[in-house]
Amino acid sequence: MEIAVVDIKGKETGRKVNLSDAVFGIEPNNHAVYLDVKQYLANQRQGTHKAKERAEIAGSTRKIKKQKGTGTARAGSIKSPIFKGGGRVFGPRPRNYGFKLNKNLKRLARKSALSLKAQDKAIIIVEDFQFDTPKTKNFIDVLKGLGVEGKKSLIVLGDSNKNVYLSSRNLKGSEVVSSSELSTYKILNANNLVFVEGSLEGIELNLSK
After folding, report:
1. Which of 24, 40, 146, 202 is an S-S bond match for 179, by CB 3.0 to 4.6 Å?
2. Name one GO molecular function term (predicted).
């Protein structure tokens, strides 16, 4: 698949890049995408939730009424879950929600997500650029030039570029990542993928294994 390379003002440079069919042109595997996104979201959960159970409640241990003769059910502890202020039955405990996926499945999921974006023509290739200083206005000008201002966009850099990253940090709709940080969730969560030309080689090399 050939895509024209544009500059930061959105004008064609006259060059084209050929995207690898092994990465951007496969038949998407929806189940692999589902599992990878599920794992990503599970890993975002802190798992620090906790409710006190019967043994952890502070309260008297005396038997609150006699065993027989009251005409009501027997009760031995004020900390019982059936009383107000008692412990919770099977309450949440701290846990890790993460689960393991093998590398081949995760690689297939990312290729599937990229192929879906390629099918939707939601990929833009921009020539390499840098900022001398962090400035949000400069980054907004780039988004305007590429026609993605106000849209959820993911800008993928070849190497981490601190000034470009800092310039984008205050904008809600756009996110800047390096090619090594690319994930299935982030690909699908964006309306447009903007690849800096220098990032393509590393992505295709990594996902073609």
Report:
1. 202
2. rRNA binding
